[in-house]
Write the structure tokens for this entry.
Amino acid sequence: MSFHINAKPGEVAETVLLPGDPLRAKHIAETMLEQVTCYNHVRNMYGFTGYYQGKRVSIQGTGMGIPSIAIYASELISSFQARRLIRVGSCGAIQPELQLRDIILAMAASTDSSFNKVRFGGMDYAPTASFRLLKNAYDAAMRKGIAIKAGNILSSDNFYNANPEQWKLWAAYGVLAIEMESTALYTLAAQHQVEALSILTVSDSLVTGEEEPAAAREKAFTQMFAIALELAE
Ligand code: HPA
């Protein structure tokens, strides 16, 4: 029984890719997987299972933000035995050397959210990626000739921050980019002793103000998904 995912037992694969946008989940499932079935329609937050090069994999939309991804990650792990959760999303770069369409492997996810602080009674927890998935993703990217960056990112509760300069504090500590989900994914994976990794594509830069037009994102996103799908086992 699961509140937001009405799949039947066994319909979700052990490896689950997690885009924020459920229509992106649909697009990837339809273009990159074989023998695809849709297991979830609740709230239009589609989830699909299929095969990539003979390996079973699911793709589940998560919505945007920490509370939303926390719901889907919790249910995938606790009710459907997901064991490898790989976020595939976009991010805003906060370092000058990052270019639009660069791909980042998030080693760790700092946050301005209270998600971890509440859980740890005000103390700090450092949510980190699975080293095994990170290494496998790095190796897959190298095999495909795709350059990647790896480092700390910020999972923010604010897409529109009241202080437009706030990102500079994180940038001064070497944080690469801002997104809105990974810290919760990493913490929940640790709690349940499963593996998680976030792979992110730079869609905009807070340093330069540049934005990738939606249509042009497709190619970079395809590369990110190609890396993520290699993590199916
Ligand atoms: N901020 C937060 N999340 C994001 C951004 C951003 O600039 N770009 C893509 N996701």
